[in-house]
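Saturday, quiet lab. Running sequence design on the structure tokens for the scaffold JK sent over.
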């Protein structure tokens, strides 16, 4: 917990400053009775709770379809994810995937597609998923091999997807497949595939260190209507990148929420644990650790809300979002590791809050673009900007 309340920063408007405390109060009283022994049931219940309370209205765009606003408010998304992550990593996941899974429909969907899919997402009565990754096509999206072949007024999907969040519980999936208009990234299209479509199969459920529904999908001559095409044929890479640009900054916000919770737990432990006639927090080594933790958190928060603010001003934030995502996830890993160290043996005990945070933060450094990918995005962006400025100067 830092000295200054970041809700008062100039990046945020009055509506944002009111949003986070309201969600904090709601989360404190509504996230306690979620079942812990059935992961799928827990996620379904969380989506339903978030929808009934109106929080999922922020995850989509279009007032006519049940959204809070016609465009997605990136700062609101970040505040919600940060707040939920402080309370429950699974609640943050449930919210985030409703946004990511339906984001392409918000950005590129037809009126009919929006009318069919977005209201249930906002209500929490339908669960969304984003199916981009493949076994040999994670960060390198252009190398994906899943295909969609045009056949009259339909497309036939063949291939597989893996590491798909909400796999196994989603009602529909935004699936990216190669349609062959051109080589590489220019020959990919995006489709909406309902979970009940013949030929669609959940081939494998995948377990990871931070439990959430995850699966490998397979498409066996899966036939879908041409009306399920998102945007235009060959536009899939653009659809994927635009969607990720919206929600990548919010990954940084989730990491920030995890880090803030770890900081609070670390401070509570440091100021209460007695050692050698004083508290753990009285030792200079502990104070040094706490100082580094607080600084890492504020640095991540500044980059996160700068990127969110810039996007809400209509600017392209590919580089800024990458900086925020990279910094927030890497810093949160250090903060949480330091909190575990402050707790000592208790910190690695199954069920301890900092132990849970330690498992939850690790995947964030990988998904929606690993840290190394963010470094490439940043470097290429600043090189391009430099070269353009040099050309403009003559």
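Result came back. Writing it out in full:
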């Amino acid at each position: 917990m830092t000295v200054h309340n970041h809700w008062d920063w100039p990046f945020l408007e009055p509506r944002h400053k009111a949003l986070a405390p309201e969600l904090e109060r709601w989360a404190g009283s509504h996230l306690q009775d979620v079942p812990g022994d059935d992961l799928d049931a827990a996620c379904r219940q969380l989506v339903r709770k978030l929808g009934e309370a109106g929080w999922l209205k922020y995850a989509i765009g279009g007032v006519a379809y049940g959204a809070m606003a016609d465009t997605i408010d990136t700062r609101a998304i970040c505040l919600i994810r940060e707040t939920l992550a402080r309370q429950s990593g699974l609640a943050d996941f449930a919210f985030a995937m409703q946004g990511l899974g339906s984001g392409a429909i918000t950005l590129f969907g037809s009126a009919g597609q929006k009318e069919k899919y977005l209201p249930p997402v906002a209500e929490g009565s339908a669960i969304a998923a984003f199916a981009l990754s493949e076994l040999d096509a994670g960060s390198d999206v252009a190398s994906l091999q899943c295909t969609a072949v045009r056949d009259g007024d339909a497309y036939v999907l063949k291939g597989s997807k893996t590491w798909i969040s909400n796999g196994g519980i989603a009602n529909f999936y935004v699936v990216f497949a190669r349609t062959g208009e051109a080589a590489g990234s220019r020959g990919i299209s995006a489709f909406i595939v309902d979970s009940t479509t013949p030929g669609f199969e959940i081939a494998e459920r995948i377990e990871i260190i931070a439990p959430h529904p995850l699966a490998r999908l397979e498409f066996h001559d899966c036939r879908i209507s041409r009306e399920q095409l998102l945007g235009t044929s060959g536009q899939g890479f653009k659809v994927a990148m635009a969607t990720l640009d919206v929600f990548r900054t919010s990954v940084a916000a989730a990491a920030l929420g995890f880090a803030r919770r770890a900081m609070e737990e670390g401070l509570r432990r440091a100021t209460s644990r007695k050692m050698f006639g004083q508290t753990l927090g009285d030792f200079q080594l502990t104070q040094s650790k706490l100082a580094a933790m607080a600084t890492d958190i504020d640095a991540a928060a500044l980059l996160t809300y700068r990127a969110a603010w810039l996007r809400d001003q209509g600017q392209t934030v590919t580089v800024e979002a990458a900086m925020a995502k990279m910094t927030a996830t890497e810093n949160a890993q250090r903060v949480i590791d330091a909190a575990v160290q402050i707790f000592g043996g208790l910190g690695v005990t199954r069920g301890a809050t900092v132990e849970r945070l330690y498992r939850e933060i690790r995947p964030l450094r990988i998904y929606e673009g690993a840290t190394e990918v963010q470094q490439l995005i940043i470097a290429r962006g600043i090189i391009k900007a430099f070269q353009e400025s040099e050309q403009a100067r003559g």
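Notes for JK: The mean pLDDT is 93. Residues 236-272 form the longest helix (37 residues). Ask whether to fix the surface positions before the next round.
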